[in-house]
Amino acid sequence: MERITNRAKQVERKPMTFLESIYLVAIVKGLMITLKHFFMKKATINYPEEKRPFSPVFRGLHVLNRDEEGRENCTACGLCALACPAEAITMEAAERLPGEENKYREEKYAAKYEINMLRCIFCGFCEEACPKDAVYLSQTVAPASFNRKNFIYTKEDLLIPHPKSAE
Ligand code: SF4
Ligand code: SF4
């Protein structure tokens, strides 16, 4: 075959010596590597009994915030949904009725608020976009599930407990 460049090198395949042909040296070398790793510090941990500490900037499950009186902060402005690159957030707005001032901080609130954790990439853009300090990402890992429906987190799943009822 014609060579395209002059960089090609001929590889010599020398016949094996007797010692090489019985693979004894190679086996001993391999065992030495195994033995060396046996006494080295393990790179793995016994999860879930052992857990690694997360980075301080780790972003986990979302939380919907309340104010100090227990009223929902979210005004269903939709900015978080707009900022979300994964289109994971959906909501429906509703108007606060007279007598509901103790439940919702603003005149408008999210009657429905859902985050699809299968779509979410935990980028934190929703938290940054929110002008009402209503949504933030906690340090909790989303639990595993075999059912896709369990990854749709509703407002009830996301809202933090009422400060008065938690007392
Ligand atoms: S963390 Fe990112 S991907 Fe997840 S809901 Fe918020 S904006 Fe969307
Ligand atoms: S969580 Fe914040 S950004 Fe999203 S709808 Fe509610 S108030 Fe607006």
UniProtKB/TrEMBL annotation:
Pfam families: Fer4_7. It comes from the Bacteria. Keywords: 4Fe-4S, Cell membrane, Iron, Iron-sulfur, Membrane, Metal-binding, NAD, Oxidoreductase, Quinone, Repeat, Translocase, Transmembrane, Transmembrane helix, Ubiquinone. InterPro entries: 4Fe4S_Fe-S-bd, 4Fe4S_Fe_S_CS, NADH_quinone_OxRdtase_chainI. It catalyses: a quinone + NADH + 5 H(+)(in) = a quinol + NAD(+) + 4 H(+)(out). Coiled coil: none annotated. Binds 2 [4Fe-4S] clusters per subunit. The keyword 4Fe-4S applies. GO terms for biological process: aerobic respiration. Its cofactor is [4Fe-4S] cluster. The keyword DNA-binding does not apply. One of its GO terms (molecular function) is quinone binding. [4Fe-4S] cluster 1 binds at C74, C77, C80, C130. Its main location: membrane. Its EC number is 7.1.1.-. One of its GO terms (cellular component) is plasma membrane. NDH-1 shuttles electrons from NADH, via FMN and iron-sulfur (Fe-S) centers, to quinones in the respiratory chain. The immediate electron acceptor for the enzyme in this species is believed to be ubiquinone. Couples the redox reaction to proton translocation (for every two electrons transferred, four hydrogen ions are translocated across the cytoplasmic membrane), and thus conserves the redox energy in a proton gradient. NDH-1 is composed of 14 different subunits. Subunits NuoA, H, J, K, L, M, N constitute the membrane sector of the complex. This is NADH-quinone oxidoreductase subunit I. It comes from Faecalibacter macacae.
